[in-house]
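Hey, quick one: can you model this chain's 3D structure?
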Amino acid sequence: MDQMYAQSDSSSRAISGEVRAGDEVIAIHSPDSFQHLQLLVSKKRRTIPLLIPGLSGILNRLHNTEVIGISVIEGAS
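Sure thing. Here's the predicted structure for all 77 residues.
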């Protein structure tokens, strides 16, 4: 579910050209001199809710997920 959300968010922002702090824009060189491609790489992190109270204290850490969304930036030149 997190992966789908991250990919959808990355795609929407690549189309609109919105780049946020923490995102990475990667230029891909093309043999076609009229088309320069760029990728938007965005990361989403969140803490997984604990179902057993006190478990994070026993394990001495929180549980997190990190997913990455990658999209082609529209109209990049």
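One thing worth noting: The chain has a mean pLDDT of 86.
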